[in-house]
Design a protein that fits this description.
14% strand; two-stranded antiparallel sheet; Ferredoxin; alpha+beta
Length: 42
């Protein structure tokens, strides 16, 4: 879904998230130590 490059920047690997992965993505965004991630409905 995403990666962090060598400079510490978040890189999206996929923009469409299957509903089956939504809870996991919400948890990852919540736990991001620098607040760089946010899960939203488009």
């Amino acid at each position: 879904m995403f990666d962090i490059d060598d400079d510490g920047l978040v890189v999206l690997l996929q923009t469409e998230i299957p509903e089956t992965d939504r809870a996991r993505i919400d948890e990852v965004a919540h736990r991001c130590p620098v607040g760089a991630l946010r899960a939203t409905d488009s």
